[in-house]
Design goal:
By secondary structure, the chain is α+β, with helices and mostly antiparallel strands. Helix content is 41%, strand content 19%.
Amino acid sequence: MRKNGKIGFTNMIGIVLNFLTKSMQTELDNFFERVIKKPERVSKQAFEQARYKLTIDAFRILYHDTAEFAAGAPEAVTFKGYRVLPVDGTTLALEDTYHLRSYYGVVGGEHGYAAARASVMVDVLNQGVILDAQIDKLSAGENKLAMKHFERLGELDMESPLLVFDRNYASAEMFEVLSDTAFLFRIKRKFNAQIDRLPLGDFIKDITIKKKVFRLRVLKFRLSTGEIETLVTNLPKDMMSSDDLKELYHLRWGVETAYRAIKGALQIENFSGTSQLIVEQDFFATMFLKNIVAFVKHDSDAIVEQNQNPNNIHPQKTNESLLIGLLKDKLVIALLETRPRVQAKLIHKIVIQATLNTIPIRPGRQFPRKPKHHKRFHMAGKAPL
């Protein structure tokens, strides 16, 4: 593919990363007018033909670069020394075509719709950065994708990861694979008879699962609703108290917040094509954008925190939804800039604009305050495309 043509490689990447929300022809016209600032006319058909020459890796590699950058952050926020990484899956609605139905599968039976299985591993204490993302057929199942997250975790070489899982993930295979990695599972009733028979309390027991014996810590407690909650971990009591385990599981909510951004503001299900190639290009492009939003928000939040008005009833933080809207055109212009100093100025300008749109942090709805290591995710250090 020509680099400097109307739709060269760089322009193709830029168009896909430009928060596509309108009709494709409108997006193309806007891109060349506002970003490239050339009166080019590129048809939707020409764009689609050129896009098929791009591989999925063009976007997967970009996304992986952001994940590796975040994973290696030396001053990342931790919980008692651990990077808290909930894993959770979802289904993504696709254009209901025969091809996508045949490849990915169908939700809701014959009269349902085409959908893919997706799963993410989120660093919830560090702006919800997506450290790994997987997309597959519905038949893959959440546990299979969770195993892929674990494989990717090994490649990231992160210090002290702690994986957190909701119901339906616990299994003998998972406990065996994660034996040398810190984990916390929420367990559903009837998962294991030995666990069900335990009274309320915090126990370390040998639990037999599928004829294999695992030394596990089981915490059973009653919720305010009267329901009994069961958590299983390999974290020792002298490192994590019962209350710590409850707080760790509470932090899992951050993965739901990440999905809200991915499906809501970033509109991942508004796929720009009906082939597997385009679906997966869009998927990894969205994960890249989610992480870029996290990096910008980190710098913006640090400035907002420094400039808090003491008269505010609640402290403020950057409005992520408005930040995503702000990045339209501006982010791609910055990423396409090849002069480092100019690029740094463009990104700094975006960060400053982001600080002007804040929302209150209400009690009981926040994660622990981030320390003032303002350069950790500083976007000026990222190389251009």
